[in-house]
From TrEMBL:
This is 3'(2'),5'-bisphosphate nucleotidase CysQ. Keywords: Magnesium, Metal-binding. The keyword Magnesium applies. It comes from Lentzea tibetensis. It comes from the Bacteria. One of its GO terms (molecular function) is metal ion binding. Its cofactor is Mg(2+). One of its GO terms (biological process) is sulfate assimilation. The keyword Secreted does not apply. InterPro entries: CysQ/Inositol_MonoPase, Inositol_monophosphatase-like. Mg(2+) binds at E56, D74, L76, D77, D185.
Length: 240
């Protein structure tokens, strides 16, 4: 290995993003999913052939459950937004899980020309009024009550990666999701958010666990660390 896992994750997310920008003109979201999947699968096979892969765009290989190293990827997070002209809230996720821990991760926001990675985390600055990013198509049923409880405002957005990176970038303060997602939706964003010093957990405060037999994750909270206690306390009431 001449390239570290972190450097590889960052390069692959960035290069897949550049490929997607070329494909995007067709306006075909599924074409983007497929193109990025083919690219990432080929690169991981070339550079980490002994590792397992869990991807949204490929059949699940149960051998990953016995593997010590598993790449968890979402070749195109936010297919709907990718297909809509002018939207920037879509992403590429590349993460590495090793023996129960996320050890590398990168999230590319190709339409913004930026890639965020766990090896070079950004410094998250405090803000004023609490801004909570939620799904633009399926926000939690309790989202408005939570925002009111913390005297905040909701910011609808596409792509889990884009929402998580909004907190990393400091343009939002928390990302709250309920109603379910898959491990590839959050693994890379969580790795980057943790490296930036942010709080990451389930909405009940329990840890996020990856590379499970069923890759479904019911919910997620990413937020500035000083907000974690108050948000978890409010979530205990509004999400019950």
């Amino acid at each position: 290995m001449t390239e570290t896992d972190g450097a590889l994750a960052t390069r692959l997310a960035t290069e897949a993003g550049r490929l997607l920008m070329k494909v995007r003109g067709s306006g075909d979201g599924p074409a983007g999913d497929q193109a990025a999947q083919v690219f990432l699968a080929a690169q991981l096979n070339a550079h980490r052939a002994d590792d397992a892969v869990l991807s949204e765009e490929a059949p699940d290989d149960p051998r990953r459950l016995a593997a010590e190293r598993v790449w968890i990827i979402d070749p195109l997070d936010g297919t709907r937004e990718f297909a809509e002209r002018g939207r920037v809230d879509w992403a590429v996720h590349v993460a590495l899980w090793q023996r129960g821990v996320l050890t590398a991760g990168a999230v590319a926001l190709p339409a913004l020309g930026r890639t965020f990675d766990a090896e070079a985390p950004e410094q998250v600055s405090p803000r004023g009024k609490v801004r909570l990013v939620v799904s633009r198509t399926r926000p939690p049923a309790f989202a408005e009550r939570l925002a009111a409880a913390v005297h905040g405002e909701l910011v609808p957005m596409g792509s889990a990666g884009a929402k998580a990176m909004a907190v990393v970038r400091g343009t939002a303060d928390a990302y709250v999701h309920a109603g379910g997602m898959y491990e590839w939706d959050s693994a890379a964003p969580v790795a980057v958010a943790r490296a930036a010093g942010l709080h990451t957990s389930r909405i009940d405060g329990s840890p996020l666990v990856y590379n499970r037999p069923d890759p479904w994750l019911p919910d997620l909270l990413i937020c500035r660390p000083e907000l974690a206690r108050v948000l978890l306390a409010e979530l205990e009431g509004v999400a019950a």
